[in-house]
Amino acid sequence: MGLTIALIIIAIYSTALILIFFYSLAQLNLLVNYLSNKRQNEEAPKFNLLDPKEIPFVTIQLPIYNEEYVMERLLDNISKIEYPKSKLEIQVLDDSTDDSVIETAERIKELQKEGLDIQHIRRENRQGFKAGALKEGLEIAKGDFIAIFDADFLPETDWLKKTVPYFKDQEIGVVQTRWGHINRDYSTLTKIQAFALDAHFTLEQVGRNSKGHFINFNGTAGIWRKECILDAGNWEGDTLTEDLDLSYRAQLKNWKFKYLEDVETPAELPVVISAARSQQFRWNKGGAENFRKTVWSVITAKNIPFKTKFHGVMHLLNSSMFLCVFIVALLSIPMLYIKNTYGHLGWVFEVTSFFIISTIILFICYWFTYKSIQGSSFDNFVDYIKLFFTFFSVALGFSLHNTVAVLEGHLGKRSEFVRTPKFNINNLTDSWKGNKYLAKKLSPNMILEFALMIYFLFGMYSAVPLNDYGLFPFHLMLFLGFGFVFFKSLTSKA
After folding, report:
1. I need a surface site. Which of 121, 228, 358, 427 has the fewest CB within 10 A?
2. 40 lies in a domain?
3. Nearest CA-CA partner of 138 in 236, 45, 248, 16
């Protein structure tokens, strides 16, 4: 390997490491915000829902697409929401193309007979996907406030009573609640998904919201002021994460968001890796699309302070961290050989300490979010250590898949909104086998993921003749991560 090539590799590798380091510093700042947060929910002005004059009209929107396995559960759950019937309507925004439409229509008729104001709204096409369905429903919505639930969410009966009162503050455009997980302990896959989402819904959402930085409506389990949606330009379907897009447009127009960590809205996690793949792809590509669409508006905004801009840019770059991680992983083996070939460049490898520091920072940050939900006993800490490194390894294993998504987003390649199949899986005795919505084709990325598994096995082997074991733990986690993703993708078929 020539010196010029070696220097190019070092430059790319170091840049990616430094970007990861900046991301970890942003997370650390959010942790400080999270820990110093004074809970102000009780002090906020609130509607008195005991006074009929203060009860606003609410529309609940349920955007669905081929949800046969969870429709009955969803409608039964929503029908139990406690709120004056004269001030509540429910829109079932049904874009389904399968037989579930008939069963849904029959159940809606039954609920209508029970006195519920519930409408079955169908479209001729799926233009704009979820965003298009929400926008079309909004045109005829009677409510001043619009609550949105995906098909796998199960809000408590008093959910509206806990969220609606905060809209007494005329500046609040959105109230978002924390996601819960009804099947957290189903498998290793569900445990690590819950782990990552818990970090987002504690550290990130509270850390940003407590200091007035931009947060995002999470697509579900939240409620909008209709005026805010319209003022921000309404739903747009030009990104795969329409929720993040509208959130930023609203906050750039000075609307405030209220995040309620203490209000948990249970939902179901994907139990099959193909479902997790499609969800991860949509979220990460959508994040990159929104960076491309919105970052300049954030940077040039006159009405927000520098620190909010910094956190906004880092937020929009969240999914792009997978690209940085993948670059670091891919170049780590050439770097190992460069280190042992060009001794005079030894000082450069002190840069690798950035990755160790970044990992330690994330380890600390995630511990605080983990213990806030799971508890802080010694046994919980031991469980946390195991879960953190399992999560870290599998996240590395997803890095190729998510890097492809991020690159497509940054390059402006359009793709269809692929829904995440729902399973109605609540406990270990439930089975996902036979689910007709599962992807039948294997991901083309699997071949590369297998090749990368072998590549990082070679990385571990390289430590022996070079007598350099500094990157061995990293290569071991990469080997295990890509192995997990590859073999689960191969075996988790209906």
Report:
1. 427
2. no
3. 236
Which residues does residue 257 pair with via DSSP β-bridges, in sequence order?
Answer: 174
Asked if residue 285 belongs to a domain, the reply is: no
pTM of the predicted structure, to 2 decimals:
0.92
Q: Do 232 and 330 belong to one domain? A: no
**Whether 485 and 336 share a structural domain:** yes
**58: enclosing H helix or E strand:** strand 58-64
* Alpha-carbon span 98 to 191, nearest angstrom: 31
Based on the fold, state whether residues 124 and 262 are members of the same structural domain. yes
Domain end position, chosen among 299, 331, 350: 299
Whether 243 is a known active-site residue: answer yes
Q: Determine contact, residues 177/150, Cβ cutoff 8 Å.
A: no
pLDDT per position in the chain (494 positions), as tens? 688 898 899 899 989 999 999 999 999 999 999 998 855 555 788 998 989 999 999 999 999 998 988 999 999 999 999 999 999 999 999 999 888 899 999 999 999 999 999 999 999 888 899 999 999 999 999 999 999 999 999 999 999 999 999 999 999 999 999 999 999 998 999 999 999 999 999 999 999 999 999 999 999 999 999 999 999 999 999 999 999 999 999 999 999 999 999 999 999 999 888 889 889 999 999 999 999 999 999 999 999 999 999 999 999 999 999 999 999 999 999 998 888 888 777 667 776 777 889 999 999 999 999 998 888 899 999 999 999 999 999 999 999 999 999 999 999 888 776 666 666 655 544 444 555 555 556 777 889 999 999 999 999 999 999 988 888 999 999 999 999 999 988 886 43
Domain that holds residue 52: 46-275+292-299
Same domain, 58 and 188: yes
Sign of CA dihedral 198, 201, 205, 206: negative
Provide φ and ψ at 268, rounded to 5°.
Answer: -105, 130
* Structural domains counted in the chain: 2
Q: Are the CB atoms for 65 and 126 separated by under 8 Å?
A: yes
Q: Residue 171: give its domain's CATH number.
A: 3.90.550.10
Residue among 94, 95, 152, 245 flagged as catalytic: 95
Q: Is 231 a catalytic residue?
A: no
Q: Give a yes or no: residue 306 inside a domain.
A: no
- Whether 204 is covered by a domain: the verdict is yes
82 and 229 in a single domain? The answer is: yes
Residues 221, 365 within the same domain: no
Task: Say yes or no: 232 and 344 in one domain.
Answer: no
- Shared domain for 202 and 333, answered yes or no, is no
In angstroms, rounded to a whole number, what is the distance separating the alpha carbons of residues 44 and 39? 10
Radius of gyration in angstroms for the set of CA atoms belonging to the chain, rounded to a whole number: 24
